[in-house]
Amino acid sequence: xxxxxxxxxxxxxxxxxxxxxxxxxxxxxxxxxxxxxxxxxxxxxxxxxxxxxxxxxxxxxxxxxxxxxxxxxxxxxxxxxxxxxxxxxxxxxxxxxxxxxxxxxxxxxxxxxxxxxxxxxxxxxxxxxxxxxxxxxxxxxxxxxxxxxxxxxxxxxxxxxxxxxxxxxxxxxxxxxxxxxxxxxxxxxxxxxxxxxxxxxxxxxxxxxxxxxxxxxxxxxxx
Amino acid sequence: xxxxxxxxxxxxxxxxxxxxxxxxxxxxxxxxxxxxxxxxxxxxxxxxxxxxxxxxxxxxxxxxxxxxxxxxxxxxxxxxxxxxxxxxxxxxxxxxxxxxxxxxxxxxxxxxxxxxxxxxxxxxxxxxxxxxxxxxxxxxxxxxxxxxxxxxxxxxxxxxxxxxxxxxxxxxxxxxxxxxxxxxxxxxxxxxxxxxxxxxxxxxxxxxxxxxxxxxxxxxxxxxxxxxxxxxxxxxxxxxxxxxxxxxxxxxxxxxxxxxxxxxxxxxxxxxxxxxxxxxxxxxxxxxxxxxxxxxxxxxxxxxxxxxxxxxxxxxxxxxxxxxxxxxxxxxxxxxxxxxxxxxxxxxxxxxxxxxxxxxxxxxxxxxxxxxxxxxxxxxxxxxxxxxxxxxxxxxxxxxxxxxxxxxxxxxxxxxxxxxxxxxxxxxxxxxxxxxxxxxxxxxxxxxxxxxxxxxxxxxxxx
Lengths: 223, 463
Hints:
The complex is a heterodimer of chains A (223) and B (463). By secondary structure, chain A is α/β, with parallel strands linked by helices.
């Protein structure tokens, strides 16, 4: 993916660039809002990573300006302001995701990759397929190798999210935010237990596991 | 000198109130006294006037029969020694009949004149006395003058007395009302002064100062109570931020020291594997530190009240959802989990904060309840109509004497030191409850008497 990073703190910028480059992405860096907006409009980026607090033109206005000029690349805000209100402001300004500092590098990579996937996967689908696993979004049924799998509503949504991001690492926080809509981290491993139950249903009776645990990061559904 | 710079006394509210009080009092008394005067002295004057008019009319009727007829009437009346005095003069100014020898006042140039005059009379025991009379003098059409007068004696005396009483009472009333006003407003000013003294003391740094409450329930008492409540909250915040500062220093020092030692040991490691492990552990330490920092920030934000929007929310859905989230992890730990929520529970709430508070309590229950135990989540309207969300377990519980303390920041009981956590969980729950005008109540849980477990109840006002 080709990513534009707009971040004024050079140390943080170097860190983010390093993390994303290591994950195999190309990263351009801009140090302030004005040049960042210009660069975003001119370049053909797959995703923008924007610090909310920027000198001059702040992050919200950069993304808003970019959207107003017809820019469609998804944007991820990085911010030390993590309240729900701030999050809502960010999304209203045209952002697609919001990551509060401090964050784990794996979280950043997972979220940026999830954004890139969303941009290309805009076509409405009625069927998700990963390996032998098939999800019918209209009938709300799941089959693996032709065998029907019964899922609870929440398990269905969990699996849907994983299938939509098949091949990508999905973090626990992402699951909590996107599947449960909670913006805090429980101290207990509630998410792990839900994922392991789901794994029990989709992987248990089959030779090849689809749902993998990525150590220190989260989960990945992959054929 | 500017007009605004009046002497100190005149600028006080006390003085202004007293003045206002006096003015109002004077206005009232003046109207009262005016009424009194009108109804007494005024009435008597008017009555005398009416009688005088009647007398004149009768005499005019007699005069229509000629001057002699009038003379006769005057003589008769004069001799009857009634209320009135008479004097009838002919065209040349000679007396025809009556009580006086000469006109006591100048004859009118026009037709009729009302006069007041003094005359000499004798009292019953024969002493001379000077008296005042009031009357009317009228020229007759064929020459001659008729005067009818009445002694003011009693009437004048009464009049004078009434006027005197009225003026004296006005003077006394003015002084009394001024004094009254001063007394009343002084007491108000004193209460205000006490409040001012309290705030001065607080500003000087004594946060334990409180305004006196007299128990009368008046405005000043209410003001004092509000002020005291505000001061109590302020004091609590100051103390908690002070102790938070100490606790942060204390609580962060040990993990930072541990981190430093680990990094130093990592430097000495010769094997790549050992170094990697040191690095990984260090990252874990830093993550813990960051988590603590985040928790402190979150708590401060909630306590400062800078929370997002409050909306009318039904907590039933949230309770069910959280139950669904925690059910599996309880089963995993071999804990029986039960959720009882049947009614709609409307409150004014920031849903994210409430969800976080409940999740903190559920986390605690899962962490501190040994396998085989049970966790119960009950959401319902309490006896007082408040919304209560209770999370009860069969873990080790919190001894009654520690329940106040664990709500404070960073307090962790000995038995929980080994568990991961920042010691801020219950503080946050309590702060969230308070931000919603509710409270956190800790009690015995569902366990047997040996280890009663913990019941944590979030009580919120229903909306």
